[in-house]
Amino acid sequence: MSTSESKSSPRFFALVPCAGTGSRAGTNGPKQYERIAGHPMVWHTLAALAAVRRIARTLVVVAPGDGFFERNPTSALVVPCGGPTRAASVANGLYELTRVGATHQDWVLVHDAARCLITPKQIDSLIDACAHDEVGGLLAQKLSDTLKREEGGRVAATLERDDKWLAQTPQMFRIGLLMQALERAGGQATDEASAVEALGHRPLLVPGATQNFKVTFPDDFALAEAVLKGRAR
User: Fold this and answer.
1) Does residue 148 belong to any structural domain of this protein?
2) Residue 149: HSE in the Cβ half-sphere, 13 Å Cα cutoff
3) Whole-prediction pTM value?
4) How far apart are CA 30 and CA 26, in angstroms?
């Protein structure tokens, strides 16, 4: 595809950073490979992405030496280019996407392997909202609980919550813009949107869903299993 064609009809790619160890999850190995509702967690994530027909290709970034996908083949492209941080893994993955034909004008949807409750409908809603946006955006959810600021284990202040959102994934940006943003961030950005914000851009907030949480702590596994089993009925 030529550069001019790419600008007029950019494609959509997915990138799943899958190189973390999940130290807070209390699992014996990487949490993304723990079984939930009969399958490894990442399997549910990849299935949702695969069901979105507009996504041209999904790239999974794993740690060097990770043999999970050698034992469990997938239609996604798996590359052992994981870095020391999430941002480094995503940056490496973006480079690999360009190596297989993606252009800087194409879109990439970066999604956490551990957000295994994402649905194709939610992914489609993000693409619909951002496909013609100048910057791109992310799934997020308005904060519903009262927000407290803490000092020394005690409440120091109650914060205004009306303008607060919880960031989720996927987060969708042009590949070239995100490469530039992550390079400027130096590998320390906690999510893609914050790196893009640091360049002076304002990503679009697209309403997500409560169930699109990141499986992080031991109790989250049981909740995710209950949701997935409920959907299968």
Assistant:
1) no
2) 6
3) 0.92
4) 10
Buried b (16+ CB within 10 A) or exposed e, 135-167: bbbbbbbeeeeeeeeeeeeeeeeeeeeeeeeeb
Total domains in the chain come to 1
To 10 degrees, what angle do helices 86-99 and 175-185 make? Answer: 140
Domain, as residue range, for 8: 3-134+168-201+213-232
Tens of pLDDT, residue by residue over 52-107, are 999 999 999 999 999 999 999 999 999 999 999 999 999 999 999 999 999 999 99
> Which CATH number characterizes residue 39's domain?
3.90.550.10
pLDDT in tens, 100-122: 999 999 999 999 999 999 999 99
Q: How many Cβ atoms from other residues are within 10 Å of residue 67's Cβ?
A: 9
The secondary structure of the chain as a DSSP string is --HHHHHHS--EEEEEE-----GGGT-SS-GGGSEETTEEHHHHHHHHHHT-TTEEEEEEE--TT--HHHHS--SSEEE----SSHHHHHHHHHHHHHHTT--TTSEEEE--TT-TT--HHHHHHHHHHHTT-SSEEEEEEE--S-EEEEETTEEEEEEP-TT-EEEEEEEEEEHHHHHHHHHHHTT--SSHHHHHHTTT--PEEEE--TT-----SHHHHHHHHHHHHHHH-
Residue 139 lies in a domain: no
Residue 150 within any structural domain of the chain:
no
